[in-house]
Amino acid sequence: MKSVFGRVLAMLAGAAGLAQAGAGDTPTFTKDVAPILFKHCASCHRPGEIAPFSLLEYKDAAKRADFLAKITGENRMPPWSPEPGFGHFMDERRLTVSEKATIAAWAKAGAPEGDPGNLPAKPAFGSGWVLGKPDLVVEMPAEFTIPASGPDVYQCFVIPLPVTQDEAVVAVDFQPGNTKVVHHAILYLDSNGQGRAKADPVTRSFPSFGGPGIRPTGNIGAWAPGIRPGLLPEGTGRYLKKGSDLVLQIHYHPSGKEEKDKSRVGIYFSKVPVRNYVGAAGIRTRQWALRIPAGEPNFTVVEQSDPLPVSAKAIGILPHMHYLGKEMKVDAKLPDGSEIPLIWIKDWDFNWQGIYGYQEPVNLPKGTVLRMKAVFDNSTANPRNPSSPPIPVTWGEQTQDEMCICGVQVITETKKELRQVMDMLHGDLGMILGGGGLPEDAETQAVAMERTKKMERMVLWEYDADKDGKISKEELELVPKSNRDRVTLILRVMGKLK
Questions:
Q1: What are the two backbone dihedrals, phi and then psi, of residue 457, each rounded to the nearest 5 degrees?
Q2: I need a labelling partner for 51 at 20 to 30 A (CA). Which of 140, 225, 411, 423 fits?
Q3: Taken in order 366, 367, 368, 374, is the CA torsion positive or negative?
Q4: Arch. (CATH architecture) of 277-437
Q5: pLDDT in tens, 340-396
């Protein structure tokens, strides 16, 4: 199902007419090239947007004609990372062979303008919200100051949501107030007032490196450079409990001079009853295993999930690495031995990440195993390497650190089954990878309570040497390295880490 964004662009492009130049004709900007640029490029290449130049006017496109032919011919633009045939996604930003040939022929002919009467109307983008006017817009309580230098900053902003009834969120659009310093954002939900209790009463925010510093009750999305909003399938949503606060965690990277930011979020609610709530399955490399030597051009990690405890349907996928990322390939091995390709990004670019929604849900039977292969380039040949000369890199939250995660958005037949899938991810990791909270009822509450008690009993019995009900740093050293990251996450979420 096409998102609103896809339908709007298709309508605009259709009104313009997309017929490419026929054999023997010389393409012109007004008749042949402008419709392509308006359809595929103008959402970013227009005044005030993220791209470094506009392509709405002939003079701007003509002086870059050879460059446009080169980057489209090499599939570098429009920015669309997934390989064709390895997952079928909504709103794929790929040019057709004919469209690329038209741009190349136009550039070769000297970039003629053509008859101004053939120029289609420029696309209208309205308020700046990609999906149209949101149902609810919220913003940070006040401007936040990011220092000129020093370590990266993680700050959580507590924003009350004026929602008087339970809602299902079908999309969010995060608009960074200052793209120079905003590295990424995660949109947690808190229905228990934990964030308010921690926040400074003036700034209504608190620092929290890594996780959100609370046990979130849900999640409505995330943003990183390149992610564009899209609608969930009809009848599907993320649960938003009335009275919840948005705990907006933003990761800032100092730019070299003092900066200020005041980001905002647009939220879209379902207009039809929701049949399915979204959760997350996924894979991540164990933290101790991600140790990338300096100079290594092809450091490879291979991971797989536990077998799915119930059948599920994948509706989207979110791969994530940092600047050393080179390639990520994910598939699903079914119980009968067959394989389903989920995504393959051969040329990873941190600045063009995405949450990729499948055109049709992907059936994952009970017992399916998710498999991931990721490759990192920590050599001088990697132009995106943040360290020169290269240094050894391990798992971490800073920009110069690395991560290796792939979240798979899923839906199930029942809430209990969704809870079982999300429990595979342990603690708040499911929230980070695109999961959400669940409407509370006796069944889901009982499942969650028993799971929490079981984890707490197990961890404290195993590692609480002095029996004081918490785990100290010294006691944590007794945890085998192969399991320490998981145990640390559990303890942090439960508030049992000294």
A1: -60, -45
A2: 140
A3: positive
A4: Sandwich (2.60)
A5: 999 999 999 876 777 788 989 999 999 999 999 999 999 999 999 999 999 999 987
